[in-house]
Each structure stands twice: as structure tokens, then as C-alpha cells.
Amino acid sequence: MFPTKAVLYVLPVFLLCTYFPLDYQLNNACKTFESYYNLYFSSNCFYNPDNNDHPLQIMKRHVGIGESHQVTTEDGYILTVFRLPRDKPKGLFFFWKAGYDVWLTNSRGTTYSQKHVNLTVESKEFWDYTFQEIGYYELNATIQYIKDTTKKEKIIYVGLSMGGCAALVYAALSSTECANSVEVIVNLAPYIFTETTSPIKPLFFAFPLKAILRTLKVLEFVFLQNFVSSTVTPDTKHEKVDLEFTIREIYRRLENLDRHYAENNRKTDTIPENCLEVKKRGNNVTGIFLIKPEYASAPFLALCDMITRGGGWTVILNRFDGCLDFYLGWQNYKNGFGNLAGEFWLGLEKIHQLSGFQVNELLVELVDSGKTEIYAGYKHFSVSNEVEGYNLQSLAGFSGTAGDFLSHQAGMKFTTKDKDNDIAPKGNCAITYTGAWWYNKCHQSQLTGVYTEKKNKYKGLRWGERFFLKKARMLIRPQMDSDLVL
Predict the structure, then answer these.
(1) Which InterPro entries does UniProt cross-reference here (predicted)?
(2) What sign for the dihedral angle of Cα 249, 255, 258, 263?
């Protein structure tokens, strides 16, 4: 229970929020930062019709199109998602104009997502959720729906404030799904303030507000926009402007990125075929670049190492902390998974496109449990197509300090837990050793095993008699005349 006086004190606040007059000057957008100090009286401010309209009305006003979709989560919430599709070449919105297919999500409980399979908004169970449910259930369902609708393998996620927090929950609780579905996450605005200027902040500390709301059976508590607009400080008005400025700045940088790619490709008007060609065009800093092998149907992003042993390497595998699950199936290994800024597997199809039509060399870099750095280099490396099982069709010319423990797998097809292509008399080597590889009967090396596996040393990251590798990288590039040992 809570003090009766507390109820008497707080009720006027609710009455004020409920009955605050609706007639006000329709000024909600200003041309200068300073004008926001006198929002209702400045001649530089004007009425923005988008302020009070439905999202579909706003979309159709600006670009002539807009879609509304409903997504049902695993725990029964029915969410409304708005879309600006890219099938019609017109429009003004920032990211849509930049070429993106834009989806606007609405979390459970918001104006456009107040439905549930079994519950109603009058039920207290409907409102019993936290950021964890939003990040886990909503993003899993919504992102999968978007992928199914657009037939795209990955999306770019931009989260603002609570949306950014939900993205972090999603990445933590659904790391595999996140790695396979999201190319990059962009988080804007902080999620938690340690100090905030707010005229209503004292209310949350002066009274047991949560208990009061439950007693009054108030399940949804949202200030009227007009009331909030009239009580915010000049500083918070600046925050609104700063957010708009931030969005414009992101768009400006997208345009600069387009110009950067155009400048880099101006001489040939083509996308580089591999990381070595990227280096030859004057890029000497290791980073992520867009490449398109000659026989690839579409370009893709790749991590290019411009420093190691002459540079120009395309990194096809990177492991260093065990944060990513590598015990996956055929489609994952075919298409690739992980994050180019962290642990990842580039994908067998991309490796084939890079190495299947010209002679490549392979570099394997390893760090063992004693933190000793070793390497294995091969002057000839080639992977065949999917019909041939992504066969390790060419591997020769070994040099290095790690020993040759890959030639044993030469000529073998790739095997995963759901596609057994090895020649072991019994069982599937991928299942037996919890990995995926060009298994023979079964292996002398495996760089896709369980990170720091202690129970069974043959299931870990293995290279010969080194069973507990701490780091492993595989890099390829078109064959060069110089030796790998520099």
C-alpha cells in the first residue's frame, strides 16, 4: 500500500495531463536552432502537417506510396510495420532516396501495435514486458518477416534510443540469427541518462508511481504531445533539432560514401574484382570494401587486409574469441555468416567466385595456446562450385612455420552437419567433430571447430598437433610472383 496523501497529490497531475487544452498554435518546425526558444511566436517557425497525420498519410504525401504490414511475434503480439518499398523510382525521404527499402517498426503497446492473439489492451498481462521481450521476440519476428517479404538475406538496422537498446538485446540473445540476418546495426541516441533536465522528473521519485498506476488501473501512461511540448526546456528543444541534424548528417555521409566509391572506380567504371585490385587502385588501409569477382552475379562486401605479406588479401575466415557459433549447416557455409568486423566465414560460394576461375594463393595465420604466431602458405588454392560440393580442387606449393596439415584434405568436398560429403566409412565427420570442413577420413586440421574445446581436443580449432588454437585466419588473393615468406 501507499500513503493516501500521495494519491491526493498525484491526482491533479493526471487531471492536468488529461484535460490540458487542445487548442494551440500549430507551430512545430523552425528554420533555425534559435527559433525553437520561441516556438509559438517566431516568424521562422511554421506548421508541419506531418506532425499529426497517420504514417501512411505522411508517406503518400511525400512519395506517393506506402505499405502497412502486420507481424505476429512468438509470444502473441501483433505488430504494425510500415514500409517504403523500392519498386517505384520516386521519392524524397532521406534513406529511401538513397536507395534503401525502408521499414518503420512499431513496438508492442504503441499506437499502431495494440493487438494480441489472446489478450486485450485492458489486460494487465498485455503490458507485462520489458526490453528483453521487445529485443528477443519482436526483432526476431519482424526481421524474419522483412527477409521473407523482400527476399533479401540481410538488412541494415537503425535504432533510436529504445530501438537501439532492443537491438543490443537481439544481438545478445539471438547472436546467430543476428549474424545471419543483419549486415550492420546503427544505434542513435543514448538509452539511459544518468542525469536529465525534466520538469516532471521529481514526480517519479516523490511518489510510488508504479503502485499508484496499478491501483488506479492505469496500464498505459503517455503524456499528451501538446502538454509535453509546452513543458520541455529550451535544452530539450535543441535535442529535437540535434536529432534532425543527426539524420541529415547520416544521409550526407551516405552521399559522400557514394562519391567515394565513384571516385575509386572512376578509372574503370567497374567494381574491383578482389582485394588485390582494390589495393592496386590506391587503397592501402585494411578495411571493408565492395568487390565483384568476374563471374559473380552480384557484388558483396569483403574484409581486405592491405598490410600482411604484401597486402591485397581477401579474408575468408576469422576467429579470435569464440563469440560466433560455427557448428552450422550447408546453407550457412554456402552463403557465409558472422560480421566482417568480428568473427565470420565469408561463404563457399564467394570463395568459389574468387578462386574458381583463376589461380589463387592461400595464407593461414594461427596463434596457438602458447601465443606463438605461426603460418602456412600455399601457392595454389582453388575451390570448385556447389554442384561439385565446393571441392578443394587445387592445393599445392606449401611453405611456412605451422606445418602442412591441409594437403590431407586436398580433393575433398566440403561437409557440414546436414550434408555428408566426406569419405569416412562410418558417420559424418562434421557431426563427430562438431565443425564443417573439407573432411577426408576425417581431418588433420579443422579451423571451424568449437573454440577452446577442452573435453575432446579433436573437436576444437585444430592444425596438426596444435589442438587449442586461440586465433585463426584464412586469406586468399590472386597468385603473385613473390614468395609468401617476406
Answers:
(1) AB_hydrolase_1, AB_hydrolase_fold, AB_hydrolase_lipase, Fibrinogen-like_C, Fibrinogen_a/b/g_C_1, Fibrinogen_a/b/g_C_dom, Fibrinogen_C-term_domain
(2) negative
Residue appearing with cell numbers 565469408: 346
Contact (CB, 8 A) for 141 and 134: no
Span 396-440, pLDDT tens digits:
999 999 999 999 999 999 999 999 999 999 999 999 999 999 999
The mean-pLDDT minimum among 65-74, 191-200, 222-231, 420-429 falls in: 222-231
Opening angle at CA 248, ends 229 and 149, nearest 5: 95
Q: Which of 435, 290, 415, 265 is nearest to 350 (CA)?
A: 290
| pLDDT tens, residue by residue, 150-184 | 888 898 888 888 888 888 888 888 888 898 999 88
Separation of alpha carbons 401 and 415, rounded Å: 27
Backbone angles phi, psi at 382, to 5 degrees: -155, 140
Residue 436 CA to residue 285 CA, distance in Å, equals: 32
What are the b/e assignments for 448-458, b being 16+ CB within 10 Å?
bbbbebeeeee
**What amino acid is encoded at 418 in this protein?**
D
Q: Is the pTM of this model over 0.85?
A: no
Q: How is 78-124 classified by DSSP, letter by letter? A: EEEEEEE-SSS-----HHHHTT--EEEE--TTSTT--EESS--TTSG
